[in-house]
């Protein structure tokens, strides 16, 4: 059973509500997780508020010492953490290891906090008047994360937030809560004082309490677009700073001059890796004439060889979906695609599975002849379903992408540098790949989509993360210097 982590220890109360946590590869209930009531969230926020009174004044050296220790512990325990992710999420071991690696990069970025918080200084802005800026913490920050990256997404936020002197209440997904508990324990081992990081589990009840709580100053949210919009609107109406990252429908445009084997490999990896449960997964390939037939054939011929099975088995390349309900929803989109007239090239409902029949399985599905009016194009399916849209020209391909309400990631495959350069300029999407199908920015840039993929001004992590977690203060100061006859207390005059 998983319970909350508040003020440096496990919560000792009795939960009124709990949720089941599944092993997606066997379909069985592996454990349960306590759901926080508003009162439990209040306890966590109170602990975080108390801790902030001292953590805000911890020296930069003290903060970075904790971060460096945490980095070492995370690195030393990465295999165990990856196994926990696979057990509850279902993604294969190599995907889980990749997730932890990307998380580590964000910790490493935050280790540099003394450098990152350097402000500006202008000597003699006016006669003997100096002006300088300082960046201060906000207070208690709420982090609300989705199921699909149970370690990485919390670590997009927590290291930067605490490095900036804030304290945190993390509300991870109730579907795979163990990774955040593992991380909380590592933070404690690293010497993070009690109350600086708290973890509450649960659902809308816990989220709503964080959104309305007067002492929570900022919210970092990642999840589906309807909930992201709700979190942004509710949080900002309550006077909080909010960054809410939402869903996606990521396109990969393939121009006729592209290396089609490279493009097909990329489409398979980016479309079906982690069973399509990535916010940066490619879900639409836009094939520009005349390469459609050849590209579809190359993608299709790769799919029977994709081994779908328990993520713990070394040969598995794609695991199960996270829950039975989600698998059924994704399957219903395959049915809808057929009914709407898309050409079903590979049917994932019939793919061979190496695993327990009760697991939440679905093989990779490929549709051709998909059009923007179809539900399989319109909606974020978040599963192993790849749609091919065909367009006669570069311009019409770009039109399709730019008309889409989401704008998280996009990629272009081409050997034409001029076309790629034009694409990166014209495309209305926050993260662009050139012959790179999943262009997740490294930790020293920031991650964020456009349009309905992000609500708020700040992208996640990197420089924008540090900006989000700090308030800037500008000091204008004058020290009297008797040697310059500086005893006049009047307002400084400009020379
Ligand atoms: P979700 O929106 O269902 O849940 C996200 C979080 O919100 C969870 O902690 C959940 O408990 C909470 N929540 C759920 N319903 C709520 C409600 N009605 N009110 C308040 N809180 C609620 O998302 P998910 O299914 O866990 O994750 C998948 C989604 O996240 C996909 O849409 C994916 O694209 C998106 N995602 C986006 C990014 C990004 O960076 N843009 C990254 C990862 C995942």
TrEMBL record:
<dbReference type="InterPro" id="IPR010061">
    <property type="entry name" value="MeMal-semiAld_DH"/>
</dbReference>
<protein>
    <recommendedName>
        <fullName>methylmalonate-semialdehyde dehydrogenase (CoA acylating)</fullName>
        <ecNumber>1.2.1.27</ecNumber>
    </recommendedName>
</protein>
<dbReference type="GO" id="GO:0004491">
    <property type="term" value="F:methylmalonate-semialdehyde dehydrogenase (acylating, NAD) activity"/>
</dbReference>
<feature type="domain" description="Aldehyde dehydrogenase">
    <location>
        <begin position="15"/>
        <end position="475"/>
    </location>
</feature>
<dbReference type="InterPro" id="IPR016162">
    <property type="entry name" value="Ald_DH_N"/>
</dbReference>
<dbReference type="InterPro" id="IPR016161">
    <property type="entry name" value="Ald_DH/histidinol_DH"/>
</dbReference>
<dbReference type="InterPro" id="IPR016160">
    <property type="entry name" value="Ald_DH_CS_CYS"/>
</dbReference>
<keyword id="KW-0520">NAD</keyword>
<dbReference type="Pfam" id="PF00171">
    <property type="entry name" value="Aldedh"/>
</dbReference>
<keyword id="KW-0560">Oxidoreductase</keyword>
<dbReference type="GO" id="GO:0006574">
    <property type="term" value="P:L-valine catabolic process"/>
</dbReference>
<dbReference type="InterPro" id="IPR016163">
    <property type="entry name" value="Ald_DH_C"/>
</dbReference>
<dbReference type="GO" id="GO:0006210">
    <property type="term" value="P:thymine catabolic process"/>
</dbReference>
<dbReference type="InterPro" id="IPR015590">
    <property type="entry name" value="Aldehyde_DH_dom"/>
</dbReference>
